[in-house]
Amino acid sequence: MHEITTTQIFYDADDLNMVAHLARPHGKGPWPAVLIGHDGIGLNDYQRSRADDLAAYGYVALAMDFHGGQTYFGMPDAMLARTMPLLADEGRMRAIGRVALDVLLATPDVDANRLFALGYGAGGRIVLELAKTGAPFKAVAVVHPGLPKPDAHDWRDVNSTILLCTGSEDPLCTPDQLLAFGHALQGAGVDWRVNIYGGAQHAFWARPTNADGSSTEGLTHVQATVPGVGYHPKHTVRAWRAVLDLFGEEPK
C-alpha cells in the first residue's frame, strides 16, 4: 500500500465553481487514474474515502463535484430539483464530466492510457455518458446508477468493461433495469456484468448520519431521504471489493 496526498481541486463547470477531491500516491508515476462521480446528495466523505483508498492502491483518483460544493443531506426536494434536470440533459452531463476528466488527465504523473471510472447514482450516469461518447476508460464501475436508454447502437464503439451494481430492493435502479441495460451492452459487444445485492436498497453504502454529519447507530436514516434508501454495511464492503476486482483485471 502507498502513502497518499490529498488536495482540494477547484474548477468551473456548469456555471458553478466545483470543489473536487484529488488523492494520489506518493512518488513518481506514471500512475493509473480513476474518475469518481458522486450521487445526487453531493460529494461527501464516502466518495472522498474511496478516492483515498484507490490512491493507497496506486491510482490517482479525482472525486469530481457537480453541485458546486453543495451537499443536500436531509434535503431531498432540493436534491431532486438540482439533479433531475441534470439527468434529463445529456449535453450538460457530458460537459460536467468532461471538465472533471480533463482536470484528472492534467494531473502530473497520470497515465492517460490506464484510465478508469467509478460512479454512484447520478455520478454513475455521468461516467456512463463519458464512456458512451468516447472517453477511453479501461473499465467503468457504477453503483445504483442513473441509466441511459438501453440502446445497443449507442455503445457499439465502446471498449470499456462495465460493472453494474444495485440492490435487489432498490426502487430507483432496479435489477430489471440493469439487466435491460446490460442486454443492450451485450448487443453492442461490450464486456459487462451485473452484481445484485440481496436485500439492499438505494444508496446502500450511505451510512446514516445526524444533521451535523456525525454517524448514528443502526441502519435507518434519521434525516429525510427519497423513498427506498437504506444502509447495508455488508453489501457496502462487497460492492467495494467488486470495484477493486474489476480495476485489478487491468495490469498496472
Radius of gyration equals: 17 Å
Widest sheet, order of strands: 1-2-4-3-5-6-7-8
What is the end-to-end distance? 14 Å
How does the overall form come out from the CA principal axes?
A: globular
The number of distinct helices, counting runs of at least 4 residues, comes to: 6
Instruction: Report the CATH superfamily.
Output: Alpha/Beta hydrolase fold, catalytic domain
Q: What is the makeup of the main sheet?
A: 8 strands, mixed
Under the CATH scheme, the architecture is 3-Layer(aba) Sandwich
Task: Provide the CATH top-level class.
Answer: Alpha Beta
What is the mean predicted local confidence, pLDDT?
Answer: 95
Question: How would you explain this protein's 3D organization?
Answer:
It is a single chain. This protein is α/β, with parallel strands linked by helices and 252 residues long. It has a single domain (4-248), classed as 3-Layer(aba) Sandwich (Rossmann fold), CATH 3.40.50. It contains six helices and eight strands, in the order βββαβααβαββαβα. An eight-stranded mixed sheet has the order 1-2-4-3-5-6-7-8, sandwiched between helices. Helix 3 (90-105) packs across helix 4 (122-132). It is globular. It starts with a strand and ends with a helix. The relative contact order is 0.14. This is Dienelactone hydrolase family protein. GO terms for molecular function: hydrolase activity.
